[in-house]
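Quick log. Single chain, no ligands specified.
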Amino acid sequence: QVQLVESGGGLVQAGGSLSLSCAASGSIFRINPLAWYRRTPGKQRELVALANPAGSTYYADSAKGRFTISRDNDKNTVSLQMSSLKPEDTGVYYCGIPNSDYWGQGTQVTVSS
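-> predicted structure:
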């Protein structure tokens, strides 16, 4: 059974930084891409960043240069380091396996102006 549990959200001022972490259990973790998504107020869930098993990464334009995704296949974790945060980054952040039903419960990130 695959479980994904996010942690690390919170309240931060604009320009600040936050680090999110996702702990995964289940054997399929290591052979699948892992991604961070977010649901911001009034919008659908959107892809923020993705890390493939071999290490390549993808970032949404809104995340490029500010966010860094990393995964540790030995520890079954995927992290998202966010810096230069903006109020529009406010939302619920989820880790998950793309194109699957495997998602965490989400963690709230609030960026105040």
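The first strand starts at residue 3 and ends at 7.
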